[in-house]
Amino acid sequence: MSKSNASNALSWWTSRRAGNLLGFLACAGMLAFGYFLQYVKGLEPCPLCMIQRAFFVLTGILFLIAGLHRPRARWAGIGYGVLIALSALSGAAVAARHVWIQHTPESLRPACGPGLDFLLNTFGPIESLRRILHGSGECGVVDWTFLTLSIPEWTLIWFPIFALWAMYLSFRD
Asked: For residue 21, is pLDDT > 70?
């Protein structure tokens, strides 16, 4: 491989397009692992987990669109970066609330509430979201840890990484 070809290959891997596609793959991997824990290991996600999943989906789709679109204009790249960062930081806010509930003493946690389907069918999306963010007892249960961190703690780490990565990419190229 000539030096020119190696340089072109390296510039593609460090481009905004490749970075956005990498962000999409990372989000897809996080979602795949969540579904593995649910369907293979039998861990049922709580309502806050479901909202965090939705933000992973949104963040991943935005990364994918940005990677496939590959806008040439600097302002468009920055626009994608801001949208992705807002999505990721919204997910981080939900994860932070979830971590707070998990670290609240059990005697002070709210009682377990109804399921997500019941809430949506009964109260509609806005009131359901308010009730979900208030938290419930099942959101405080830690069913799985890796390196002593629970799933919401891991998502609280990853969402800001995605936001920073998106902003870094938006000023790249």
From this structure: yes
Average pLDDT, the chain: 82
CB atoms within 10 A of CB 63: 29
* Number of domains forming the structure of the chain: 1
91-129: pLDDT as tens digits = 999 999 888 888 777 776 666 566 667 777 777 777 777
pTM attached to this predicted model: 0.78
Task: Tell me whether residue 1 is in a domain.
Answer: no
Is the residue at 59 inside a domain?
yes
Domain that holds residue 152: 16-170
Helix (H) or strand (E) holding 150: strand 149-150
Kindly give, in sequence order, each residue whose CB lies less than 8 Å from that of residue 59, ignoring residues fewer than 6 positions away.
Answer: 23, 27, 84, 87, 88, 91, 159, 162
Task: Fill in the amino acid letter for 78.
Answer: I
CB 30 within 8 A of CB 158: yes
